[in-house]
Specification:
heterodimer, A: 779 residues, alpha+beta, Aldehyde Oxidoreductase, domain 3, Aldehyde Oxidoreductase, domain 4, 3 domains, 7-stranded mixed sheet, 20 helices, 23% strand, globular, B: 157 residues, Ubiquitin-like (UB roll), DNA polymerase, domain 1, 2 domains, 5-stranded mixed sheet, 34% helix, 16% strand
Chain lengths: 779, 157
């Protein structure tokens, strides 16, 4: 019996190159004749450009070219576009480099190319720009009606979007036993993938263009750049995303710098390379979150949630990034039912232009914001009603016999047993003992808090018809080409992309199991538009559920073909052939079989072959899911707050997740660890702070607190498993759930620790200053 | 331009360099040893960590000319005779990496830590890796990987 691969913690196939320094990231690539690009960027959040003088810079030895926004405008090159439309959406033009006005600190104005990067930096600093500063605004709520950023949107409103039933919700509040209200901020975050963005463009001798790029979705980059910005024939444009050092959303989008690199290579006739510095990435990579929200929840006398009303100002930045409009709408408002059958929900989101870099999807994208609203309100309701936070959740959870469950905000949840997950988490925690311990500690003046987050997400993006009807300018299926070679070795082209998720291992596990071959015979390839069929890439926890399912369907097609070839060779009927563990066997006659290798060879020789099927052994699948998947979890944080200093220490973190079937438990746990750590970062440490002039105050890694090892505890993971019914693997997706659930768990724990002092809310990041102030509010 | 003589992973190199050239750029761009990464510009992330004369140093904070005459070990030189260093093995065994970008610096820092403290507690490991940032793993499995290596090195000692 061969070892079952799916479900096993196989060590990662990709690791040997990374642990020996042999990974190949974009910046590692050197090309003959390459020049290096440095951008001249706006130091102002909002200003008129009076003049631009490049003559001194251009005269510097080693400088090969300087291009400005005006040059690109004259050439008719378009800038980044927004790929998700909403009713009434204002879509101001987004030039690849600014021409006469800048709208955020960091907006590119010109690019300098030189024979080495140090010279390019010197020359960029020698470019003279004369500005007239204009009034700027960075806060989304203040931007509503603040200084106008685009003439198309005088009040800075990019869109005004609603979901749910307003009248029914108002009625629920009118008849409520109890209502609670929170004004909260979902703090703006900087993704901080450890590899800064980079791009290398080269015009090949054939005139074709190759772009090496830090991308989570090279086909999307190629499509958008070829069709909408550069007007390059798609077949003559190759985008390669080699090893990519983390993304968390920030490498989904088409950025101005990438368009400029391709155009600069075409103009200068030399390969060009741009590698972002970290400080540059802070002002030029899309940020995440940035919500200001007023939210209310209504309850009946038994603590059942009867209504939820939410109004959110969502910062968009100065222009609309690739998926920016989807994040605070369809990835946010639709998740406001949480794990609860809330009978009346209404959400209104205003997307607001601000004088900041763009805001777009960052790990979780809309769903952490929704979870935070719901879970904070549930806790506040428990407090007001005198209920235990675990008990109020138990009373409200959707019961297991209600699936599929239709929410009031468009989604139909697939499967789950939410109460079982809660039970498991409480048991793992030792809840009863811990409440006693909390009380005892309080007597001694120590503040222990226990915080819950019963979170759900919609991922496995996505059914194409559904997202199309909601405004997406793209489908969301995924491709897989599984190719068996004559020797029985296998290569797989997937349209999804790994930038840390371990596809080379988990996807190989799927194929090895399905075809009954050793894992090392399977090679997973991704990230090159010249190799793989069109694919939508990796984000929204979609790789396993959509990309993995495409592979599983291709494997099934190959099994069917193998049976037909083997039936011919064995002179049996195809329906009498069983295929298992790499052997096609005549049912009831175990001595009559052909091995996988024999069939593979015959598929290519075709000397003794069925006349009614084509030679060769490969299968391509474009898998379009019928629904989103809905991973869910119960996360519980235990914190201790130092009353003297305001310091919060996370003592324990329990994460019981239901992500459906699990392909590789080790990798799944790793995804949870990382997601939780980013959520703890949001809850306690991280915040992108702009001052009143639109300057990014947290502009470097010295100023923005990415958590270090000693700020994150060991994460106690466990799971329940309810298979996803809508895909062949039964997987739900795991990349984002940790980051979605954890901010609310931590915030609830801190408030729980301090509730005896009358503290009901502290905005994230919950820094020592804020905690200290909350504790000493009366002093 | 200034001449530097630097031994990297046992091999001696001599180059004319600009006095302002950072050691990390010397390693990556002049020698083509791209295992050492650049993740920030303020010496926070530690992706560029190498050993200079046996001590972990952030190579983005050192000029190539300052390293003149020194012996440097990078991630490419950590395995000996084709045998992975126990830390490399530990990171693989314990899933101590995801995207792999912080990994070379993380391993080089951890190697220095284990040299100074062969039997570190979990807290000592976390404090010892204060100068290295990982955005993927939440550090959970990095701590496990270092514990694995410490155990393995004890057995081998």
């Amino acid at each position: 019996m061969a070892t079952q691969m799916i479900g096993a913690s196989i060590k990662r196939v990709e690791d040997p190159r990374f642990i020996t320094g042999k990974g190949l990231y974009t910046d590692d690539i050197q090309l003959p004749g390459m020049t290096y690009a440095v951008f001249v960027r706006s130091p102002h959040a909002h200003a008129k450009i009076n003049s631009l003088n490049i003559s001194a810079a251009k005269a510097m030895p080693g400088v090969t070219a300087i291009y400005t926004g005006e040059d690109m405008k004259k050439a008719g090159i378009g800038g980044p576009i927004c790929g998700w439309s909403l009713p009434g959406l204002k879509l101001p033009a987004h030039p690849p480099m600014a021409v006469d006005r800048v709208r955020y600190v960091g907006e590119p104005i010109a690019v300098v190319l030189a024979s080495d990067p140090y010279t390019a930096q010197d020359a960029a600093e020698a470019v003279e720009v004369d500005y007239d500063p204009l009034p700027a605004v960075a806060d989304p709520k203040q931007a509503h009606g603040g200084p106008t950023i685009h003439d198309e949107a005088p009040d800075n409103i990019a869109f005004d979007w609603s979901i749910g039933d307003q009248a029914k919700t108002d009625a629920a509040f009118a008849s409520a036993h109890k209502t609670v209200r929170l004004d909260l901020v979902n703090n703006r975050l900087i993704p901080n993938a450890l590899e800064p963005r980079a791009a290398i463009a080269r015009v090949e001798p054939t005139g074709d263009i190759t772009l090496w790029l830090t991308s989570q979705n090279p086909h999307i980059h190629r499509l958008l750049m070829a069709a909408f910005m550069l007007n390059i024939p798609e077949q003559k444009f190759r985008v390669i995303a080699p090893d990519v050092g983390g993304g968390f959303g920030s490498k989904i989008f088409v950025y101005a710098e990438e368009v400029v690199m391709v155009w600069a290579a075409m103009q200068s006739k030399r390969p060009v390379k741009w590698t972002s510095t970290r400080r540059e990435s802070y002002i030029a990579d899309a940020h995440g979150r940035d919500h200001v929200t007023e939210a209310e929840m209504a309850f009946d006398a038994d603590g059942h949630i009867t209504g939820l009303r939410v109004k959110t100002w969502a910062g968009m930045g100065a222009y609309l990034s690739t998926f920016a409009t989807a994040v605070p709408t369809y990835l946010y408002g639709t998740l406001l039912s949480g794990q609860y059958p809330i009978p009346a929900i209404y959400c209104n989101t205003l997307g607001v232009f601000t004088n900041t870099v763009m805001v777009d999807a960052y790990r979780g994208a809309g769903r952490p914001e929704a979870t935070y609203v719901v879970e904070r309100l549930v806790d506040l309701g428990a407090y007001e009603l005198g209920l235990d936070p675990a008990e109020i959740r138990r009373r409200n959870l959707i019961p297991p016999d209600q699936f599929p469950f239709q929410t009031q905000v468009a989604l139909q949840y697939d499967s789950g047993n939410y109460a079982a997950t809660l039970d498991k988490a409480l048991e793992k925690l030792g809840y009863g003992d811990l409440r006693a311990e909390q009380e005892a500690a309080r007597q001694q003046g120590r503040y222990i808090g226990i915080g819950f987050s019963t979170a759900i997400e919609a991922c496995g993006l996505a059914p194409s018809a559904v997202v199309g009807s909601l405004g997406a300018g793209a489908g969301q299926w995924e491709s897989a080409l599984v190719r068996v070679h004559p020797t029985g070795k296998i290569s797989v082209q997937t349209g999804s992309h790994s930038h840390g998720q371990g596809h080379e291992t988990t996807f190989a596990q799927i194929v090895a199991d399905g075809l009954g071959v050793p894992l090392e015979d399977v090679l997973i390839q991704h990230g090159d538009t010249a190799q793989s069929p069109f694919g939508y890439g990796t984000y929204g926890s979609r790789s396993a559920a959509v990309g993995g399912s495409a592979i599983a369907v291709s494997v099934k097609k190959l099994q069917d073909k193998i049976k037909r070839i083997a039936a011919h060779l064995l002179e049996a009927a195809p329906e009498d052939i069983d295929y298992a563990e790499g052997k096609a066997t005549v049912r009831g006659a175990p001595e009559r079989f052909k091995t996988f290798g024999e069939v593979a060879l015959q598929a290519y020789l075709a000397h003794n072959y069925p006349t009614d099927i084509e030679p060769g052994l490969e299968a391509t699948t474009f898998f379009d899911p019928t629904n989103f998947t809905f991973p869910y979890c119960v996360h519980i944080a235990v914190v201790e707050v130092d009353g003297g200093t305001g310091q919060v220490e996370v003592k324990r973190y329990i994460a019981v997740d239901d992500v459906g079937n699990i392909i590789n438990p080790m990798i799944v746990a790793g995804q949870i660890h990382g997601g939780v750590a980013q959520g703890i970062g949001q809850a306690l440490y991280e915040s992108a702070v702009y001052d009143e002039n639109g300057q990014l105050v947290t502009g470097s890694m010295m100023d923005y607190a990415v958590p270090k090892a000693r700020y994150i505890p060991m994460i106690e993971t466990d799971q329940t498993i309810t298979p996803a019914p809508q895909n062949p693997l039964g997987v739900k997706g795991v990349g984002e759930i940790g980051a979605i659930a954890s901010p609310a768990a931590i915030a609830n724990a801190v408030v729980d620790a301090l509730k005896h002092l009358g503290v009901t809310h502290i905005d994230m990041p919950i820094t020592v200053q804020k905690v200290y102030a909350a504790i000493h509010a009366d002093a | 331009m200034t001449t530097v003589n630097i031994t990297v992973n046992g091999q001696q190199y001599s180059h004319e360099v600009e006095p302002r050239l950072l050691l990390v750029h010397y390693l990556r761009d002049v020698l083509g040893m791209t295992g050492t990464h650049v993740g920030c510009d303020t010496s926070q992330c530690g992706a560029c960590t190498v050993h200079i004369d046996g001590v972990a140093v952030k190579s983005c904070t050192v000029l190539a000319v300052q390293a003149d005459g020194s012996r440097i070990t990078t991630i490419e030189g950590l395995a000996t005779d084709g045998q992975l260093h126990p830390l490399q093995e530990g990171f693989w065994e314990k899933h101590g990496l995801q995207c792999g970008f912080c990994t070379p610096g993380m391993i080089m820092s951890a190697a220095d830590l284990l040299k100074r403290n062969p039997n570190p507690s979990e807290e000592e490991i976390r404090l010892g890796l204060e100068g290295n940032i990982c955005r993927c793993t939440g550090y959970h499995n990095i701590v496990r990987a270092v514990q694995y290596a410490a155990e393995k090195m004890k057995v081998n000692a």
